[in-house]
Amino acid sequence: MTKRILNRKTTEAVGEQVNVMGWVHARRNMGKVVFFDLRDRSGLLQIVCVPSELDEESKNSLDKIRPEYVIKISGTVQNRAEKQINSDLETGAVEVLAKRIEILNECKTPPFEIDKDTSAVNEELRLKYRYLDLRSARMNQNIRSRHSITQSFREFLIGEDFVEIETPVLAKGTPEGAREYLVPSRLHQGKFYVLPQSPQQFKQLLMVSGMERYFQVAKCFRDEDQRGDRQPEFTQVDLEMSFVEREDVMDLVERSIVNTIQKLYPNKKIQQLPFPRIDYKDAMEKYDTDRPDIREDKNDPNLLAFCWVVNFPFFEKIEDGGWTFTHNPFSRAVPEHREWLLNKKNIGEILTTQYDVVLNGFEIGGGSIRNHEAEALRCVFEVMGIGAEEISAKFGHMLEAFEFGAPPHGGLAIGLDRLVAILQSEPNIREIIAFPKTGDARDPMMGAPDVVSQQALKDAHISIDTE
Amino acid sequence: MTKRILNRKTTEAVGEQVNVMGWVHARRNMGKVVFFDLRDRSGLLQIVCVPSELDEESKNSLDKIRPEYVIKISGTVQNRAEKQINSDLETGAVEVLAKRIEILNECKTPPFEIDKDTSAVNEELRLKYRYLDLRSARMNQNIRSRHSITQSFREFLIGEDFVEIETPVLAKGTPEGAREYLVPSRLHQGKFYVLPQSPQQFKQLLMVSGMERYFQVAKCFRDEDQRGDRQPEFTQVDLEMSFVEREDVMDLVERSIVNTIQKLYPNKKIQQLPFPRIDYKDAMEKYDTDRPDIREDKNDPNLLAFCWVVNFPFFEKIEDGGWTFTHNPFSRAVPEHREWLLNKKNIGEILTTQYDVVLNGFEIGGGSIRNHEAEALRCVFEVMGIGAEEISAKFGHMLEAFEFGAPPHGGLAIGLDRLVAILQSEPNIREIIAFPKTGDARDPMMGAPDVVSQQALKDAHISIDTE
Known about the structure:
Two copies of one chain form a homodimer. Chain A is of the alpha+beta class. Among the domains of chain A are: 7-105, CATH 2.40.50.140; 131-312 and 354-372 and 407-432, Bira Bifunctional Protein, Domain 2 (BirA Bifunctional Protein, domain 2, 2-Layer Sandwich). Chain A has helices at residues 56-64, 123-128, 130-133, 137-159, 200-208, 246-264, 280-287, 338-342, 374-383, 388-401, 416-423, 454-459; strands spanning 17-30, 33-40, 43-49, 70-79, 94-105, 163-164, 182-184, 192-194, 213-221, 233-242, 269-270, 277-279, 303-304, 306-310, 315-317, 323-325, 355-359, 362-369, 409-415, 462-464. In chain A, helix 4 (137-159) crosses helix 6, helix 4 crosses helix 11 (416-423) and helix 9 (374-383) runs antiparallel to helix 10 (388-401). The N and C termini of chain A lie far apart (58 Å). In chain A, 47% of the residues are buried. The interface between A and B is large, with 120 and 120 residues. Strand 20 of chain A pairs antiparallel with strand 20 of chain B, so a sheet runs across the interface.
């Protein structure tokens, strides 16, 4: 393949012979002369095909070429006539006069139009042909923006001395977690891995290991009944820090978010800095929700109103009169309620160090200062009515780890999918995930989930329930 | 918590009152005076405790403190006497004279010594207490180096216009792949997701989507019989490019590797640049392996001898006299053998565009130019004796995608675990993974895999085989 230049680079190559490659975005027949808009990763470029300039083979190709064909054009870059300049296009002042056209691959008629916004197209169809949907300008930009946002967080955190550390996907079940995906073990008959709902325990153990500042762009898994735009797998910017208090984490997270928006979305306006801190109690009284939308102008698409919600109750009553945690059993009580927890009194009044970050009415992140004292953590489980034996079986490794010099620590996880969707003004996180699942957790393109062979089931030591 | 400074920063704070926090790395009693080496993420710092300088509470704490306690020291930074300067330590010219000592958390006696190399400690014990093992200097550095190497590849690829894109972990099974982990679906009784052995199909579909340059630091899963240092989950730097030929991919990958080594391992020496290209046939004849160790001096721990192995046979005979692929069914034949493939002749002589990159006798990466023509890919499956119906059921989505304007494309995956292990001079990839599994795929720290509740099995619509 002869050396190719990107469409964008043709503006610097006027008068030169070049090769460009890409997809036919549009074709315009003007009598004898044919114009193509050629699309590559750098943008669009106008190609002019005058039959007299083309060799015989290229002339034949010219008739065949339809939108979305993959072609290679060898030709000369020339300035457009003054009147033909398209100022909407980065390459709008130039065009390539084709000398040779090569069809690299053909394209059947796509099931929907790719050169337009595909929002209104039937979603099942879009997902079945996701590789075509991703060619549309909006979807392409969504995926690229997701990358930029992710990398912006990454660079910020690295600059703050964080280390990115991979934690296992084949993990152990957490007792608090319903709806975990099981993975049967072949080597250990009757035993299962579980896909983690979050790296919570691992990241806390990394604090015990002295890493001090951990982050990860982490895949998390939750087999929920699919409502709204939940996804069975989703992504968190997950972080944890040692030797910090609540405001330290909130300040750092706030700076990481503001940094990303100011760099990548200069047109967006952040309503208030620092993000206002709202008591859970006040939020419920004033807004009747713990995810208040505090935008002063809800019609302004560029307004971003963040707030922190704090001072949540640690526990809430469950049906049978017992208690469960509201957010995370590993959280620390606020310092002034530590004694209550240790003595298991005033349970309903104990506040947790939990902090949620809310954007325009959506919870985009949450975390807490953790219980690094084995004794206090044990009390949390006891309040929840978990017996000593069960505590030991399910949380023994965490309680033991906390006896080996666990530092005070806390962290947070940002829901990356939701944040990207809001920044890209998309109503649904499926629009900013390259290969999402449907509402009922299917992949119509690949056909997942699917039946598997009897041999695969046998190897995994399982049978399918038939009732 | 009062503002803390890192140990490393004390060198710039001589004469000042500071707070430092961390773990007691070592304790030295010199009669009345006690010295601590305090360890935080930035390094070690000497603390001097003279009883007359301490308040009453701190004096009591002093007696209790043992190695690996988490403490906070408030004190004054002072220059050490000329003779006491430790030039091996970044903070070796200073020390902190403690005024106040606070125990933030205690530590039981660790099951092995943390201030020494833990290589020789029983591995089951190290894995059970991984959070302690990771405190040791070597393990801590391994995890930090893994982060730096990963980010170096990431930055290089982003600089080359690549976009990082997440692909699903809940995927569909691939027919070529034995030993895939199954994930039963709750919403679709009797159906299963499969954890991907690699993002191969997704990355090729991203090329069809026109992303042109994709990469991902991707978790991959393989339920192999655990031999040597294989892991059930492992990490690839996975990439794919459009409009390229074999040498384009090899050149880019080579530059990404060289860039990382020159930046992060200036003491290492790359034996030959560009990496020599060796024919599979020649490698087998000369070295009797397709992973030749071509180091000129195998005793030089800093010598890195890379080579590319190319021109592998596409197919190999299987027991029943049929054919299977040697590397990847999605590969393209070398251009001069394309016709053979399309006519299904000279099967045993067809060469694939596969390229493997080998370092000091280990295969650290491999890839190929892919078949972007549906017809040629169909031939590969036919050579393997797969019937039309099966081809359609298992690969129909790929064949169909290739009919919608698939560009020529190719890629590669670097085995990140192995590469990091070699660069860190570790014999085993378990040494450079934060939370690895044992040889038989267990996590002794968390206790995975584990039994799960009957309710969880019921929700997943499966039963355990008891025979």
